[in-house]
Amino acid sequence: MKNNRNSLNYFIAVLIGSLSLLLLSNCTTPSQQKDENSEEAGSYIEEPDEYTVAAYVWPSCHHDDRFGDMLWPEGIGEWEVIKKGNPRFPGHYQPRLPLWGYELDNNPQVVEKWIDVAVDHGVDVFVYDWYWFDEGPFLESALNDGFLKAENNSKMQFYIMWANHDVRRNYWNVHKFTDDTSILWDGAVDWENFKIIVERVIKQYFKQPNYFKIDGKPVFSIFSIGNLLESFGGSVEETRKALDYFREEVKKAGFPGIHIQWNQGGGRIMSQEAAKQFSERVNNMGFNSVALYNMGGRNEDYLIYGTNSRKIRAQMDSVLDVPLFPCVSIGWDDTPRFPAKGIHDVVHYHNTPESFAALLQKAKEYADSHPEQPKLITINAWNEWVEGSYLLPDMLNGFGYLEAVEKVMNGEYDKY
User: Are 156 and 118 spatial neighbours (Cβ–Cβ below 8 Å)?
Assistant: First the structure.
């Protein structure tokens, strides 16, 4: 009887082992799974539980071929302004001092270093600010010549945020234009230019194998919704027609569609009526998601800033019918651009990598609480030196903010 039982146990063990091997042979890891259009569109099926951390890139620190001589004649882009930052109160950290020096953001060797350090610390995507002024691109070299010519750019994904806000003459170089607040560029475009933009971004960017996609659809973020509306006569219906035209052109290019993202910029607590109108506009224009460029609710105290931002996020979440992606800012200090600003305009209390990590953990928990949507978290920013919000290492905090991202996204922050 004992021998029969041993034989039966042996047979069951062999059967289980064979079934296990069969199951394993038919499985692939998430990184190996591609959708059927992956070779053409370069999209991968992401593991549902994976987080995506995207950092905004402000591409102003190089010489722009079209407008560089007019804006920043020293030939180093906005570094010209950043280096002239001056303290406005005791203990004010100005000028900001990059650990790696004043490197140009359109140098592929510089961006190769960025990509390595980003990936090593849990940043997966760069979101490039992108402009179209006077019927042509502005500050495009950071992406075209920096990121896309970096030899290791296949390690990193990217997408575009069309940032066409209005620009006053003294906004980007107050030292040259002083009190001249006249409009240099109106961010609205006409139909002809919109069609050129659509064709350009599809051919030049969407077809890059590492362009960031959601459900196989290239993500295209739009920052200045007011100027988008102005481009089409202020009409929600006409703006929807333009975005639908964009969708059809993307499908013609071989993609299943486009994921168009409303970028709210900052944010504030809205009245009930304003919140309702906001949600209706998102729906009526056909946006697929909402993100923020900075987290909103600024205060001198970073802890209050973070608390305010979470209240804003909660309100937006309660009224939206599309995914809302959380944003965490590192700080705020745009005094190099504005001589009149002082202590009350700067986030300067409790502004530490540790406080940032705590807030990033809360954003991660928000993503966990919305399993129906991609776990995309945005960070302001990778290199906003002129606004005092950057992950890149500096002389004050070293790699502290990057290490905070790594710690939180690795699950080391929340031990329980």
Answer: yes
- Indicate the pairing of strand 217-222 with strand 213-214: antiparallel
Q: Within 13 Å of residue 327, how many CA atoms lie on the same side as its CB?
A: 29
**Cβ neighbours for 200, distance < 8 A, ≥ 6 positions apart:** 137
Report d(CA 56, CA 383) in Å as an integer: 8
Question: What would the mean pLDDT of 407-413 be, rounded to a whole number?
Answer: 94
pLDDT digits (tens, 9 = 90+) for 317-354: 999 999 999 999 999 999 999 999 999 999 999 999 99
Report pLDDT digits (tens) over 221-259. 999 999 999 999 999 999 999 999 999 999 999 999 999
Query: How far is it, in rounded angstroms, from Cα 152 to Cα 111?
Result: 9
Average pLDDT taken over every residue of the chain:
90
Q: How far apart are CA 306 and CA 330, in angstroms?
A: 10
Positive or negative: CA dihedral 114, 119, 121, 122: positive
What is the predicted pLDDT for the residue at 413? 86
Q: How far apart are CA 298 and CA 172, in angstroms?
A: 21
Residues 6+ apart with CB under 8 A from 149: 108, 111
What single letter denotes the amino acid at residue 157?
Q
Whole-Å CA distances, 179 to 67, 70, 171, 188, 255? 20, 16, 10, 24, 47
Contact predicate 88/335, CB 8 Å? yes
Four-point Cα dihedral 96, 101, 103, 108, nearest 10:
-130
pTM tops 0.85, yes or no: yes
**Residue in the structure block whose two tokens are 């991609």:** 374
pLDDT tens, 200-217? 999 999 999 999 999 999
Rounded distance, CA 28 to CA 45, Å?
11
Give dist(CA 335, CA 193) in Å, integer.
34
pLDDT value of position 414:
77
What pLDDT, on a 0 to 100 scale, did the predictor assign at position 49? 58
> What ranges do the domains of the chain cover?
52-409
Measure the CA–CA gap between 408 and 326, rounded to whole angstroms. 15
Whole-number Cα distances in Å, 82 to 96, 98, 102, 186, 219: 7, 11, 10, 24, 31
CATH entry 3.20.20.80 includes domain 52-409: yes
